């Protein structure tokens, strides 16, 4: 029967939910739920507005799979209250499942406690718990994994790695509203936007949900939530990640109108900034046109040999006939700078301290405030949004990414802005 193999038909005919009027009704997918079902890959991140039905959809997919095939499913939520709500959704599916269907009888449960439910006829287990301890979910072998409000978990990387261990076929749905421009969920969303890694990002802004497209709805919600509106009901996948601290650039409007495809203009002065990184960090080089006061090019790479990274740096250096290149010398930077200098690159080395970093970021702030144009790159935007300024216990002010966020783009941009342009460089014969 198609109704047993098709999750949407199964939900429509067999499952009941409470609508927003607290009425018990058949579960018919809305357009966002249908969109996700059609586009899911198995490695799925869902960045969403509140109450658009993604958690209910995930639970229906788990219920359908558990009662029709052999599955071991786990759902983890960020707090006990949400865990209980997800358990209620599963119980409502079961309690209201029809008994008078000839082709498919109501499934039998053996255990149904606060955490575990078993279906012996299909040899399926369904676990619902709170993502508190890093050991939660570790040790089991799961076939379906639903994570709810992942941006609010305390140790998401360890928990997710434990729950996914042994999963032969990926079937993972990690959904959340945004919670600051930092952390595992934020990083994976930015990676997905940039086309890196395994995860696919499904972004559902509030205006794609029909129930929110009512006259005056947005105005009333803004009056209720104030500045939190764009976090609870996001409109784009970057600005919704509001930093929990005060953003270093939050007092200015940054112009992201610089063109993406640029060519060298004779007579213009080009400088670049270079921030080295590998493994968990990225090597970023940003080129700016000091004449037109705009960003014109960049590279953003990691997990590449140093030799290949230097080849990319030299390519950009020669492409733009740079009049100045300022590179961070700390740690791995010094060796790479020496190798690049052997190849003829003229580099201004920069030693990063709290004081020197704050100085170049202040210069960057002033340039952006005065209209310096940047390219519309979402990773760049996210990292600029995550920068905060804090005062240490000794009274020193520091500028850094919120939480475990990256600042590779901002550092490279600040170095490019502050790089000294050598007039004699423009007379050089470029190969």
Care to describe what's here?
With 431 residues, the protein is an alpha/beta fold. It has two domains: 2-232, Rossmann fold (3-Layer(aba) Sandwich); 255-427, 2-Layer Sandwich (Nucleotidyltransferase, domain 5). 34% of the residues lie in helices and 21% in strands. It contains 14 helices and 18 strands. The protein has helices spanning 2-5, 7-14, 31-39, 54-68, 80-95, 156-164, 183-193, 217-225, 229-232, 306-319, 332-342, 354-369, 378-386, 408-418; strands at 16-18, 24-26, 43-48, 72-77, 116-119, 124-130, 144-148, 172-176, 200-204, 255-258, 270-275, 283-289, 294-301, 324-328, 348-350, 373-375, 387-391, 397-401. Strands 5-6-4-7-8-3-9 form a seven-stranded mixed β-sheet, with helices on both faces. The chain has a five-stranded mixed β-sheet with strand order 13-12-11-14-15. A hairpin with a 5-residue loop joins strand 1 and strand 2 (24-26). Helix 4 packs across helix 5 (80-95) and helix 12 packs across helix 14. The longest helix has 16 residues, at 80-95. It is elongated, with a radius of gyration of 26 Å. The chain starts with a helix and ends in a 13-residue tail after the last helix. The model is unreliable at 424-429 (pLDDT under 50).
